[in-house]
Design a protein that fits this description.
InterPro entries: TAT_signal (IPR006311)
Low-confidence stretches: 1-30
Mean pLDDT: 88
Structural class: mainly beta
Shape: elongated
Order of helices and strands: HEEEEEEEEHEEEEEEEEHEEE
Radius of gyration: 21 Å
Helix content: under 10%
Number of strands: 19
Distance between the termini: 40 Å
């Protein structure tokens, strides 16, 4: 049996708790790394119904959480806990693929290459995740160590464990449960409840998934346009070449001036080096900024690499590609 066939998938509930969404492959336990310590407690304890639990306050555009997207009176970005419609500017961008094909991608702002852990629970002796148990995270936007990219950790709980007895990472530690770090990464931006991002490159649920954060419920998207794996402890990256209406270093230049677009439409000449079906694809892009004087001559990856670069590897941004070759 192939490795793909032996991979288990852990489950997470959607925002209504009535639909089960496959939230990601956890990988083979035999290939995971044990990061636990202590003795395992029994699985009994107080159970928390997610439907009755408080929700976490999420603000992706605070000064603590944002880098390129920080809320001001001028830009009018949504406030704390306000649902975000990612299917509009400045969150959805039209660019070019390596061969000049049209691509669209979401903008989830700067993210680091160090992934954050997410915990999926399995009962002893079972390959399926605990039914009804929400995955558990320990950081949200604005927290030190937060990342949209989550490193999947498998947690083995006792056979008598009841779903949603554990609702914090501290609960897992206090329980002394075995925790195994897999190689699997998932791109799951945490957002306010009722936020929307309706586009995906591959077929899949576009709704929100629910998880636990410090006894409170959080919502997050899931982007699975290509499988991702931890590489030397980090999120893999791929290059993108971009240009702005005003070059960096000029008054109001760089990101505040917005991407340069073709006259009369919103088509940029931002070029991604890979698309989801390519080897080496990653939605975490290393930003290379080229001179906007070269805008018209940039039509594909080859031409993008031949123009004047103003900044190389400026930062890394989470921009999952959601369409390729469609206008």
């Amino acid at each position: 049996m192939s490795e793909d066939e032996t991979r288990r998938r852990f489950l997470a509930k959607t925002g209504t708790l009535s639909m089960v969404l496959v939230a990601g492959c956890t990988g083979s336990r035999s290939n995971a790394t044990d990061v636990s310590n202590g003795e395992m407690a029994d699985g009994t304890g107080d159970v928390t119904d997610p439907a009755n639990a408080p929700r976490t306050r999420i603000d992706r555009f605070s000064e603590a959480a944002g880098t390129l997207m920080i809320r001001t009176e001028e830009n009018g970005l949504p406030g704390p806990n306000e649902p975000i419609d990612f299917d509009q500017k400045p969150f959805l961008t039209r660019g070019l693929g390596p061969d000049g094909e049209m691509v669209s991608y979401y903008n989830f702002d700067v993210q680091p290459t160090d992934p954050a852990p997410i915990y999926a629970l399995f009962r002893e002796g079972e390959d399926a995740p605990v039914e009804g148990q929400l995955n558990i995270i320990d950081e949200i936007p604005g927290d030190e160590g937060y990342n949209d990219f989550w490193h999947v950790h498998e947690v083995t709980v006792p056979a008598d464990y009841e779903a949603n007895t554990a609702t914090t990472v501290q609960d897992l530690r206090d329980g002394g449960y075995d925790i195994m770090a897999t190689e699997v990464l998932k791109n799951c931006p945490v957002v306010p409840d009722e936020s929307t991002a309706s586009l995906r490159h591959s077929e899949g649920d576009t709704g929100l998934v629910e998880g636990w954060y410090n006894d409170q419920v959080v919502s997050y998207f899931l982007f699975e346009e290509a499988p991702l794996a931890v590489t030397d402890g980090s999120v893999p990256v791929s290059p993108i070449y971009v240009t702005f209406n005003e070059n960096p270093g000029e008054d109001g230049g760089g990101p505040p001036s917005g991407f340069m677009t073709e006259g009369g439409n919103d088509q940029t000449h931002n070029v991604v080096a890979t698309v989801p079906d390519d080897g080496g694809y990653s939605p975490l892009w290393t930003i290379n900024i080229y001179d906007n004087a070269d805008f018209a001559s940039v039509t594909d990856l080859e031409s993008a690499t031949e123009v004047t670069l103003l900044e190389s590897d400026a930062t890394t941004v989470n921009c999952p590609v959601v369409s390729v070759g469609m206008e």
